[in-house]
Amino acid sequence: MTPLHTNPLFGRLADAERILVSGAGGGFDIYAGLPLALSLLHQGREVHLANLSFSALAGLPDDAWAAPDLAVITPESAPHQRYFPERTLAQWLRGHGYPAVVHAFPQTGVQPLRAAYAALIERYDIDAVVLVDGGTDILLRGDEAGLGTPEEDLTSVAALAALEGPRHRLVVSLGFGVDAYHGVNHVQVLENIAALEREGAYLGAFSVPRTTREGALYLDAVSHAQAHTPEHPSIVNGSIAAAVRGDFGDVRFTDRTRGSELFVNPLMSLYFAFDLPGLAARCLYLDRIEDTHLMRQVQSRIAEFREDVVTRPPRGFPH
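== DUF1152 domain-containing protein ==
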């Protein structure tokens, strides 16, 4: 039994020497894992970064590919591309003296993504994987009122759920509440977390304070990304960063949120941590996407599942 003064997530990682921190849902998801990755680096661990990518990876040269569906992104990768979160992060890492490599997976189905993860894990002899979601839709099992954008997140979960090798497979979610504009009901998210607690798969929560070294570096990294991707800044990480700074309510940091109302609040700066196999076991449609090779297959299988399932009605927070 873990003592109260020991964080369960870091307790699980105590014996891990080589850790992969990987963004589950594409875009800037890997940025949500940056505070955790930096904390592990500052403890002297060997940390590697990866991200399921929305970038145009097909144009990368042959020598950028370490294996099928596994690209190695550096600060110099694809300089002509304006939108490239993995390269932008690699540039920020180099500027702060950290290892400046971010691995990228193209959008595929479960089978090729699992093979790419296996190649990356073998490449660095990884003994722990932490899958990161910026938001909470990775925590949805399938019968909720709305699922947000689960395709990439649950493809990543499925790819790792049946992958043997690493001693630890974990999930962290940062940005509670940010998926509301995608139709996620966060009372149902809390209901799911409670169920995961009962089943022993919930590893608790902890905040990312701006007064910590990692919190300050995260704010700097998000600001750097916004400056280098002005046409398409991350709403998720912009909201999380605003919460870390102590902002509240309908905070404006990009025209992309024009016409919608944000609810930036302190819960967005909390990491919620979970055992990945335990989380995967609760997903009602994971078996349906297991044999997929293309992301559009994942999308159609989830859509078919949603046609058949009886959804739980949305619930509001008590006033």
